[in-house]
Design goal:
The protein is an alpha+beta fold. Helix content is 38%, strand content 22%. It folds into 2 domains: 2-39; 52-159, no CATH class. It is globular. 26% of the residues are buried.
């Protein structure tokens, strides 16, 4: 009799791939929802330190104003807009991402904030907001599922 009870209990507790997949999907959805909530501006408040969701030519894009400078060995135009696709605490990670983007044919650069606490991986630069928005759309369309490390799941337009 005990053998029968033990076999029923063990069979009932057996994890399945479907259960693992459901738990993984639920955790991923929760993480993405929390990340998006952290990056959205609070209603009725203005935030100076994070990307703001703006409407640019009918598209919803994240825009931020940052004081950027070019990392040694990289170049940025004197002033304009950058399409940020990742932001890191370590310059080696930003440099690696910029190098990978250059290998794909982008005019990528590694650009630290003037404060020196974060490094952006920039896929492209533009002289106007409209051109930067077009470059961001093109990048997002050609890279579905791109990780956008440290960003709200989309390219960020950086006015520098």
């Amino acid at each position: 009799m005990w053998a029968c009870v033990a076999s029923v209990l063990l069979a009932g507790c057996k994890p399945t791939e479907r259960n693992y997949r459901a738990a993984y999907d639920a955790a991923l959805a929760k993480r993405q929802a929390e990340a998006e909530l952290r990056m959205l501006p609070a209603s009725g408040l203005m935030s100076d330190d994070g990307p703001q969701l703006k409407i640019v030519n009918g598209d919803s894009l994240y825009v931020v104003k940052e004081r950027l400078k070019a990392a040694p060995g990289d170049t940025l135009p004197p002033a304009g807009w950058a399409v940020g696709v990742g932001v890191y605490k370590m310059n080696t990670n930003a440099r690696a991402q910029a190098e990978a983007l250059r290998n794909e044919g982008y005019r990528a650069a590694c650009a630290p904030r003037a404060a020196g606490d974060r490094w952006y991986a920039v896929a492209d630069t533009a002289s106007s907001l409209d051109r930067a928005a077009a470059a961001a759309r093109k990048f997002a369309d050609s890279h579905p599922g791109y990780p956008y490390v440290g960003l709200p799941g989309h390219p960020v337009l950086i006015s520098y």
